[in-house]
């Protein structure tokens, strides 16, 4: 990731939106982080609404 940023951007300038298409690995890393790091819980707490009896 750092190698790609250094190669495309260099050391003397700031990243710009126009650089996006030149950095596919960086783009893939960011999208994967966004996909896996949800800000909301994916599993809601479970709670039984009534008692159950199994096998008798």
TrEMBL record:
Protein name in the entry: Uncharacterized protein
PANTHER family membership: CYTOCHROME P450 508A4-RELATED
Classification via InterPro entries: Cyt_P450 (IPR001128), Cyt_P450_sf (IPR036396), Cytochrome_P450_fam2 (IPR050182)
Domain of life, per lineage: Eukaryota
Keyword annotations of the record: Iron, Metal-binding
Protein's UniProt keywords contain Hydrolase: no
Family: Belongs to the cytochrome P450 family.
GO terms assigned for molecular function: heme binding; iron ion binding; monooxygenase activity; oxidoreductase activity, acting on paired donors, with incorporation or reduction of molecular oxygen
